[in-house]
């Protein structure tokens, strides 16, 4: 029984980095653009300011949540 638990834990530890790596690659392939974020935001003035900031920094910030990695287009 102890071997089974140790083996399960070892497999989990080895598989976790592979799952994170594959998730990261998928996210990189589907990078959003600042223009897409603006389209989702709407026509409010705050959205335009967020768009301009995104074009400068590549990050879309809403209140305390900052998401980076947007393509500047």
Based on Cα principal axes, name the global outline: elongated
* Sheet with most strands: strand arrangement: 1-2
Q: Over the alpha carbons, how many angstroms does the gyration radius reach?
A: 19 Å
Largest sheet: 2 strands, antiparallel
Helix vs. strand class: mainly alpha
The fraction of residues assigned to DSSP E strands is: 5-15%
Report the total helices: 3
Order of helices and strands: HHHEE
Number of strands: 2
Quaternary structure annotation = single chain
- What fraction, in percent, of the residue positions are helical? 55-70%
Show unreliable segments: 18-28
Distance between the termini: 56 Å
Q: Could you report the average pLDDT, rounded to the nearest whole number?
A: 75
Based on the model shown, name its key terms.
single chain, 73 residues, mainly alpha, 2 domains, two-stranded antiparallel sheet, 3 helices
3D structure, described in words:
By secondary structure, the protein is mainly alpha-helical. The chain has two domains: 1-30; 31-73, no CATH class. The chain is 67% helix and 11% strand. It is built from three helices and two strands; from the N terminus they run H-H-H-E-E. It has a two-stranded antiparallel sheet with strand order 1-2. Helix 2 runs antiparallel to helix 3. The relative contact order is 0.13.
């Amino acid at each position: 029984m102890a071997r089974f638990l140790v083996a399960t834990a070892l497999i989990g530890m080895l598989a976790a980095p592979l799952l994170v790596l594959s998730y990261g690659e998928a996210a990189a392939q589907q990078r959003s653009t600042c223009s897409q974020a603006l389209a989702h935001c709407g026509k409010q003035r705050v959205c335009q300011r967020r768009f301009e900031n995104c074009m400068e920094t590549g990050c879309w910030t809403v209140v305390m949540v900052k998401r980076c990695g947007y393509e500047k287009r």
